[in-house]
Amino acid sequence: MNGAESLVRTLVAGGVDVCFTNPGTSEMHFVAALDKVPGMRCVLGLFEGVVTGAADGYFRMKGTPASTLLHLGPGLANGLANLHNAKKAHSGIVNIVGQHATYHIGYNAPLTSDIEGLARPMSSWVRTSPDARSVAADGAAAIAAARSAPPQIATLILPADTAWNEADGIAEVPVDTQRPSYSPQAVDTAAKILHGDAAHTLLLVTGSALTEHGLALAERIAGKTGCTVMGQTYHPRMARGRGRFSVNRIPYVIEQALPILKNFRHIVLVEANDPVAFFAYPNKPSMLKAEGCEVHRMTAWGENSVAALEALAGALHATAQDVKPQQHQELVKPTGALNHATIAQAIACAIPENAIMVDESVTTGRGFFPPTAAAAPHDWLQNMGGSIGFSTPVATGAAVACPDRKVICMVGDGSAMYTIQSLWTQAREGLNVVTIVFANRIYQILRGEFDGVGAGEPGKRAQDMLKIDRPTLDFVALAKGMGVPGRAVTTADEFNKALAEAVAEPGPRLIEVQM
Amino acid sequence: MNGAESLVRTLVAGGVDVCFTNPGTSEMHFVAALDKVPGMRCVLGLFEGVVTGAADGYFRMKGTPASTLLHLGPGLANGLANLHNAKKAHSGIVNIVGQHATYHIGYNAPLTSDIEGLARPMSSWVRTSPDARSVAADGAAAIAAARSAPPQIATLILPADTAWNEADGIAEVPVDTQRPSYSPQAVDTAAKILHGDAAHTLLLVTGSALTEHGLALAERIAGKTGCTVMGQTYHPRMARGRGRFSVNRIPYVIEQALPILKNFRHIVLVEANDPVAFFAYPNKPSMLKAEGCEVHRMTAWGENSVAALEALAGALHATAQDVKPQQHQELVKPTGALNHATIAQAIACAIPENAIMVDESVTTGRGFFPPTAAAAPHDWLQNMGGSIGFSTPVATGAAVACPDRKVICMVGDGSAMYTIQSLWTQAREGLNVVTIVFANRIYQILRGEFDGVGAGEPGKRAQDMLKIDRPTLDFVALAKGMGVPGRAVTTADEFNKALAEAVAEPGPRLIEVQM
């Protein structure tokens, strides 16, 4: 067998049986191997940002890495923005990038570029296979890296001759000896802090803590001790909805975050980062915690936060009896005009049991959390890297990972345009994704940021760089162009109806919410 | 004035008065400065690949750099593929990328990444401004780098606080002392080669040689000496059409290139590269020249090839009288079915005087050169870097540079989907671009490459990675979604009619050629 076949067989044997791809010439032997090796599902994207974002969404829902297949340096470059988001979410991806044949690189043909240099900023593991007999072992090492604790973006660069030359066969993925765990000492310290001054202690959680069970443990700890539990501003995935512990998040806006955080003398980090502003602004702090506030890390990314929370609850004798009953929240379908409140209410009512919510709603969605806390149980996925064009690919990959669950992708009109090609892959694969585009015809977040950075009142020419209303984007036409049925809504009643139908029907749908 | 204003004023004073942009928070002060500084035209793109490709197209037509404005590492990453193409075409671009405030970078906020690391592979000049008082001088240095010989991608990274802090004012662009010239010795050597064995000598031309006058000089030299003049496979810009010297290009397909090149004992390079295969293939050579063929470089990128050709023509006593009369070629509008031949013929008939042809026609367009040699005089722009998603942004930038000329963008359906967002910018700016999409519903080039690399006959699953027919892309709907009128054609007559109307009307149009 050749190198490409040895790699595909190694991937499948190693449990990496989905490949999101946009291949080119240098990857044709890999494509050919698909017909020889059973068990690899290949999903084509028309743009590489779709491919890498889908691999991110797949990992978040499945917990194991998918592979990608990208064409040389520029193909990788097109996928980097969503690799950035995936890296910040600690998603594992076996990111395979074709390269010229080893002996061809020196000739500086048109597509030649420094692929390793491009890969490094958004990868934690980078390797170029030197020859066909190394490809399987390198692939196995990439799988191990992608699956490590914390998971990583592992970029494997594959010169074309390593794909077509003779190889030896499958390589086994090295057994991961480093099992996710936690530090009992760190849990002891957290317990002491909570014993001492729970009223001024924030348990700041994210990552693997945000399962239904992890949240329930945090809820018991809060009930027992009186500490506050909050989430970061953004999370890779969070269990939410009826019956689950609903935590507030640190607000994005500095002026809202500071008064909340100033109450805490201690912050216990559960995978979370020190609370830091998303951007810097003139005369505003970057670090959001109060002066003198002591930060203690209980778990880091890659550690077992649920086990650590179990231990912490045990040390504090916190049990299910300590949980304060949550207020019952009634869900009523909204009527009348569409605004941020009625949109949030309509979505909360429409969320089906076990839905996957992919959130790139930006300014429209800043109030989505409170009403949806009462919705049917669901998972909520957010952008950890801040690079827009995140949601439609992540929704695509989540739907591939979970064909029996409904994916609802919430996206601003500006954000939707970066990787709109996702819709085609959703149509091609018949994926159960409802894309809701919030069409306010402006990069509304930038209008806010313009104020935030103290740039004054935007004049006509500055406004031209923020507004995207000339011409108006017609998302229903764009969806039709890629084979996805869509409709536009202008009232809450229309939105309720469109959502109910889209959720009920199989396959992808798009709703343009005209605000 | 603050740093952002000092930069915008420096750009305008330095002749860089167009900015293609997709800004974010860290660039808001630059956007605010647009209202304070007259003379900067800002053109918004909905995706960064549109922005960088437009800057490439602008440079190719205008000969002076435009600027870009991109948002942090991921915004730059999204623009890298077309920066790659621009770099390979030796286009000059002042590529401005926002960064977190200097003091904020260390906090590792979500959008933090290694921007310099991302920039280096596709830039020849990279600098991060350290403070507001340095921004103007750094901007001036970036302009000088972008304008140098050969021109460069100059990436200037602008931490947010360097934009909002107080600065000193405008900086002057350093005078370029290194004027483009050529080596008289290299011309002497070329003259000697042509004196000695012109019948076995190939004058291989590209770059600045491909003006109407440069080509006329090459034609005289060929007429006088009997040498062969050919172009590379791809060129940044080539003067073509009726009355201009039409040169053949080295074929992309190795089996076609080898028999042509085996006749030559000498190759004189005029900015061209050694003839190298685009990709490597098993058991085929990378280097296409005959064994023992001697290669002599007469001019390099950045040198004055027209002056060198003048000198060479002078040394050889080649004059206009030496030119062999070209065969008259009749242009007849095609009828009947659409195929590669009738499509080429229809386009040749429709090209208006002084049109700008942007060519990403891939397999459909491999035969476009012969018939269009008889078309009205035009410029022909090609992809030098091989990264698809090139043409619609380049057409956009070319139209901004030359509002009085008609731009015709020829693009395969697969390629069109990478940067389809260009259409919106064309509609917004009312640009005179006719986009012709060749909808064969397959990455046809990959079907050929699959054979080329010896991967056998593609099975069903491999074919799935090459064909894009499920679902069918509706480019008329996509164009409508972005405010561009479009129509689909299925016969040569319909295509003739659609082309004639699209060329006659102002503003952007799209024609989907269903093959």
TrEMBL record, chains A, B:
Q: Which family is it part of? A: Belongs to the TPP enzyme family.
Top-rank taxon: Bacteria
> What SUPFAM superfamilies does the record point to?
Thiamin diphosphate-binding fold (THDP-binding)
Instruction: Tell me which EC number(s) this protein carries.
Output: 2.2.1.6
What GO terms are given for molecular function? acetolactate synthase activity; flavin adenine dinucleotide binding; thiamine pyrophosphate binding
Biological process (GO) annotations? small molecule metabolic process
Q: Where is the Thiamine pyrophosphate enzyme N-terminal TPP-binding domain?
A: 1-108
Q: Which InterPro entries match?
A: THDP-binding, Thiamin_PyroP_enz_TPP-bd_dom, TPP_enz, TPP_enzyme_TPP-bd
Domain Thiamine pyrophosphate enzyme TPP-binding per the UniProt entry, residue ranges: 376-513
Name the keywords, alphabetized: Thiamine pyrophosphate, Transferase
The organism named in the record is: Bradyrhizobium elkanii
What is this protein called in UniProt?
Answer: Acetolactate synthase-1/2/3 large subunit
